[in-house]
Write a structure and sequence with these properties.
Chain lengths: ~200, ~150, ~180
């Protein structure tokens, strides 16, 4: 989308006047402020009431869209087993290394770092509000990767070493990603003491 | 020397030598010319290929990291934020997306990435970080009370 | 794939034609900038195997400005491959022979020497002046900002502007200007 925007850039001065060689500076057509140091420090006077209203409006809009189920296909970024995955519904992700869950286990992925829909993106700091996004997944397969050969050799040094290894892999199907909770409406925090975030 | 018929099994000499060489020849099945047919040449090239494979597994990670950096950099550039400022502001705001995710967002979710650069810019302006390279401050970012 | 998505796909991977005015620009600094557009590294969709580089049309390459005394000191080496086939050409001599070559070599040398480099260079069109063929000019849709501003020479100011420029003092009548 951002690339699309590039097509719109105007080229009027060049296309009209082809003889730009002599004194005319073509780059003058682009109005960029070269001397940034002259820029005053940014400040603005903000009415807290108006700003509060603006925030409320944005939150209301998102809530309305979610309630009407108009948000479209959602993607989420989850933190799982030390890695981050950008996922959408129906994806299969591979968790490498030792990971206890077994085939058929249904999981709720709690560490959601970001949820994005057609018109809005919810960015977690670092994770979105508990209970707001509901990401569920099923372990569909536990397997090993193909055999990887770790081969080292030094020429003329009589050194050769070969090892074979396979990595444990867990395939995880993402069943649902939905926004179940209400935005900016944190629930009373209970029962999360046992969690390690 | 990949045998497809049983006739060839009879031709093979000692059992041990045959199977030992066969292991190597199987790895060289896709090589060209004598590299795949003559054992003494095959073994050299198989060793070389395996060393490359071992090294390549590490290099792949480096290459991917470089590509992520490149993509984030170009994404930042489009929205007028420098890369260090972007990372600093995000970590100050508590956004803990890693480079892989940020690169994915820059490539596949340009709108969400723009939201991140906007937040970074707003945060930088709020904290008085060096925003001199920014082309213009983002409009429509309501931050007060939400960031920090 | 909806028609909107299809067009978006085309637009994302379409080659953009940029124009760059090289007058008064340092070719080695410009090379770093042009490289980015030729290879497409300025796009978040960049991948080394993804053919997403753009075309860049450079005009006024005859008017480039080398830093310091590089016109005199920079030497371009060439070897024909035969014995005693080595030759050294000074930058000013090369520029006299072909005013596009200094910039072209600067861009070429700024890129990594891989198989893609020659194809990437094909997308660079350099012209010594502002006379660009119409069939190339019609493709252009973007202009690249130059890293340096072109200074205005004294002889390009009008008589009136020079007259009206604030002065600290007038020369005395009997002062002889040498």
């Amino acid at each position: 989308m951002s690339l699309l925007r590039q097509f719109c850039s105007k080229l009027a001065p060049i296309l009209v006047n082809n003889s730009v060689r002599s004194t005319q500076n073509v780059s003058a057509a682009i109005t960029t402020n070269r001397f940034f140091s002259n820029k005053p420090a940014p400040y603005e006077i903000v009415d807290p009431k108006i700003e509060k209203q603006e925030q409320q409006d944005i939150i209301k809009k998102v809530n309305e869209q979610v309630n009407a189920n108009q948000q479209g296909r959602i993607f989420a970024v989850v933190h799982l087993a030390g890695k981050q995955f950008k996922i959408t519904e129906g994806d299969v992700i591979v968790v490498e290394g030792y990971w206890p869950p077994g085939p058929g286990d249904k999981l709720k992925l709690d560490k959601v770092l970001m949820v994005g829909a057609k018109d809005f993106t919810l960015i977690g700091r670092p994770i979105v509000e508990d209970g707001l996004a509901n990401v569920t997944a099923t372990v569909i397969e536990k397997t090993l990767s193909h055999t990887k050969t770790d081969f080292k050799k030094k020429r003329r040094k009589q050194y050769k070493n070969i090892n074979f290894y396979r990595i444990q892999q867990t395939m995880l199907r993402i069943n649902t990603i939905d926004l179940s909770g209400k935005l900016n409406n944190p629930p009373d925090v209970t029962g999360t003491e046992h969690r390690i975030l | 020397m990949v045998f497809t018929t049983a006739v060839n099994f009879i031709r093979s000499r000692g059992p041990d030598e045959f199977w030992r060489k066969r292991k190597i020849f199987k790895l060289a099945a896709h090589f060209q010319g004598r590299k795949r047919n003559c054992y003494s040449i095959t073994i050299r090239y198989v060793h070389r290929a395996l060393v490359y494979a071992t090294k390549g597994r590490k290099l792949k990670k480096v290459d991917m990291a470089n590509l992520w950096e490149q993509r984030i950099l170009s994404g930042c550039e489009q929205h007028g934020v420098t890369y260090p400022l972007f990372k600093e502001s995000l970590s100050r705001s508590g956004v803990m997306l890693n480079r892989k995710t940020l690169a994915d967002l820059a490539c596949w979710e340009p709108q969400s990435f723009k939201a991140l650069t906007d937040i970074a810019q707003a945060r930088a302006a709020q904290d008085g970080l060096n925003v001199s390279k920014s082309l213009e401050p983002p409009s429509g970012v309501v931050t007060r009370g939400m960031i920090k | 794939m909806s028609s909107l998505k299809r067009v978006q796909q085309w637009a994302t991977f379409a080659r953009i034609w940029h124009i760059y005015d090289a007058s008064w620009q340092n070719p080695f600094q410009s090379a770093g900038l042009l490289k980015k557009y030729l290879m497409g590294t300025y796009k978040p969709i960049y991948h080394p195997l993804n053919d997403c580089g753009d075309h860049v049309v450079v005009i006024n390459s005859g008017d480039i400005a080398l830093p310091g005394d590089e016109w005199k000191k920079r030497v371009y080496f060439h070897h024909t491959g035969y014995p005693r086939g080595a030759s050294w050409t000074l930058a000013w001599q090369l520029h006299k022979k072909d005013p596009t070559l200094v910039l072209k070599k600067a861009v070429y040398n700024s890129m990594d020497g891989n198989l893609q480099r020659r194809y990437t260079m094909e997308r660079l069109h350099i012209y010594p002046d502002a006379n660009v063929p119409a069939d190339i000019m019609k493709n252009i849709s973007n202009q690249l900002a130059t890293p340096r501003e072109v200074p205005k020479r004294l002889d390009h100011y009008s008589e009136k502007e020079v007259e009206e420029f604030p002065k600290i003092m007038d020369y005395p009548k009997n002062y002889i200007l040498r």
